[in-house]
Design a protein that fits this description.
Number of helices: 6
Helix content: over 70%
Shape: elongated
Order of helices and strands: HHHHHH
Number of strands: 0
Mean pLDDT: 85
Structural class: mainly alpha
Oligomer: single chain
Radius of gyration: 19 Å
Low-confidence stretches: none
């Protein structure tokens, strides 16, 4: 027989394992989605650099493509885990975040192209940092590094700003997503 203290210690160990498995599953899913977004964002910055007049079209297509891919990944992961439900809460969350961002940046902000890039990057990183509060420090590290490098680029990089952002934002997301796979 085990006493109350031993039973409590055993339950704490079990809860710790459950927490680690849950965090690992969250990191595995997030790393895939973050890496995909990193590749899409990298390509969009490069395209925007070479075709600056098509910026709104490039970013609209990138964001819609990323939303569709992220939702599809969530759906497939739900199917594999036995929960065949469509990730409607995730989709609604993305849509609300996007709607508020569009309202803030276009209706309220009246940003130029460079400011728009910085706004959307920092706005997106806010949600990564918030996810880090709930799911683990890796999200916070990705958000802090990307935000700091974005601001450095905004103030210090001239005409190569979009190329800088391709590496910092797109490359940073890819690197962060791959790093999360190893945690």
């Amino acid at each position: 027989m085990i006493d109350t203290a031993q039973a409590s210690a055993a339950m704490d160990d079990i809860n710790d394992v459950v927490r680690r498995v849950r965090q690992s599953q969250i990191y595995q899913t997030a790393s895939l989605i973050i890496t995909i977004w990193g590749v899409l964002v990298f390509a969009a910055y490069i395209a925007n650099h070479f075709w600056p007049r098509q910026g709104y079209t490039i970013w609209t297509a990138t964001d819609l493509g990323g939303l569709v891919i992220s939702t599809a990944v969530g759906f497939v992961i739900n199917l594999r885990s036995g929960n065949g439900a469509f990730p409607i809460r995730s989709l609604i969350s993305f849509l609300l975040i996007g709607a508020f961002g569009v309202f803030s940046s276009i209706v309220l902000g009246h940003f130029g192209p460079r400011q728009m890039i910085v706004f959307w990057t920092l706005y997106g990183m806010l949600f990564y940092a918030m996810a880090g509060v709930w799911f683990g420090y890796a999200f916070i590290v990705i958000a802090a590094c990307t935000s700091a490098l974005t601001l450095i680029g905004y103030y210090c990089i001239g005409p190569a700003f979009l190329l800088w952002m391709a590496v910092v934002h797109g490359g940073g997301l890819v690197l962060g997503g791959l790093w999360m796979r190893r945690i």
